[in-house]
Specification:
single chain; alpha+beta; Glutaredoxin; four-stranded mixed sheet; 3 helices; 20% strand; Mycoredoxin; electron transfer activity; oxidoreductase; EC 1.20.4.3
């Protein structure tokens, strides 16, 4: 399952959620303001910054503020 680390006020997060929904890509949303461990993960892959959206894939890899095209390409490489 794809995990999106987000905040309620993040416009980029809302846009990516809409694009994932439109493409039929399933994901779980985790609010880093409500989950300290999630915030720690986001900081660990973003040089200490709480940059959202950050996506974590099943293989443990992550993308920060990706386009829907980048997400689809990464998902394809994981299933290839």
């Amino acid at each position: 399952m794809l995990t999106m680390y987000s905040t309620p006020w993040c416009g980029y997060c809302h846009r990516l959620k809409s694009q994932l929904d439109r493409e039929g890509i399933g994901y779980e949303v985790v609010d880093i303001e409500q989950d300290p461990k999630a915030a720690e993960f986001v900081m660990s892959v973003n040089g200490g910054n709480q940059t959202v959206p950050t996506l974590r894939f099943d293989d443990g890899s992550a993308l920060t503020n990706p386009s829907i095209t980048q997400v689809k390409q990464h998902l394809e490489t994981l299933t290839a």
